[in-house]
Amino acid sequence: VHPNVSQGCQGGCATCSDYNGCLSCKPRLFFVLERIGMKQIGVCLSSCPSGYYGTRYPDINKCAKCKADCDTCFTRNFCTKCKSGFYLYSGKCLEKCPDGLEANNHTMECTSIVHCEASEWSPWSPCTKKGKTCGFKRGNEVRVREIVQHPSARGNPCPATSESRKCIVQRKRCQKEGKGKKNREEKRKKSNKDESKETRQESKGRAARRQNREQRENNNKTQPKKRKAPNKEENLAPVGTAH
């Protein structure tokens, strides 16, 4: 063993030196060089820090630097997060997104352009004027539609969601609400009155028929029964033989 190499190291080092820090790591730990001023110190970590990616070899596990424009990476050629001012696209960090894509400043990625989409138009509404459907000849009718997909920053803007056009209706007078209500009330009262009148008439008719029936029954009870007239043939004496 070299005189500057120590076996009793701290911080996960398998071997180390007082000047260079860790020279090798314990199993499953990654070896990485950290710069402190003009000097590089070896350290052993369970995972690689930001800006590095890990590689495993049979004799040692190392942390290697990502590209200069990459903040975190899976390999040197596949970035997972870019540094400020760059946009991620297919593992690469770009200053400008390719054609057909747009820069998303929230995720710092190049994403597909999304255009606005609207639903089908609704049927035309009834012809109205100042909120009324009567008392005029020319009015307006409208139809609407909904936005089902909002656009991205560079996508096509959304169209109008409502349309209006002139319309013509057959002129008719508006029935006043108070007058209409009064007419309905009068009809209801008249109907109830007619029903009551018919009910009273039916009651009187039934009472009169019952009274006539009782009168006939009483007359039949008070009148004497007629005696049966004798048979004329019975009153005639038999003609005897003269003696």
From TrEMBL:
Keywords: Disulfide bond, Glycoprotein, Heparin-binding, Repeat, Secreted, Sensory transduction, Signal, Wnt signaling pathway
Assigned GO CC terms: extracellular region
Main location: secreted
Disordered: annotated span: 169-243
GO molecular function, one term: heparin binding
Alphabetical list of Gene3D superfamilies matching this protein: Hormone Receptor, Insulin-like Growth Factor Receptor 1, Chain A, domain 2, Thrombospondin type-1 (TSP1) repeat
Role description: Activator of the canonical Wnt signaling pathway by acting as a ligand for LGR4-6 receptors, which acts as a key regulator of angiogenesis. Upon binding to LGR4-6 (LGR4, LGR5 or LGR6), LGR4-6 associate with phosphorylated LRP6 and frizzled receptors that are activated by extracellular Wnt receptors, triggering the canonical Wnt signaling pathway to increase expression of target genes. Also regulates the canonical Wnt/beta-catenin-dependent pathway and non-canonical Wnt signaling by acting as an inhibitor of ZNRF3, an important regulator of the Wnt signaling pathway.
Protein name in the entry: R-spondin-3
Natural source organism: Phaetusa simplex (large-billed tern)
Species classification: Eukaryota, Metazoa, Chordata, Craniata, Vertebrata
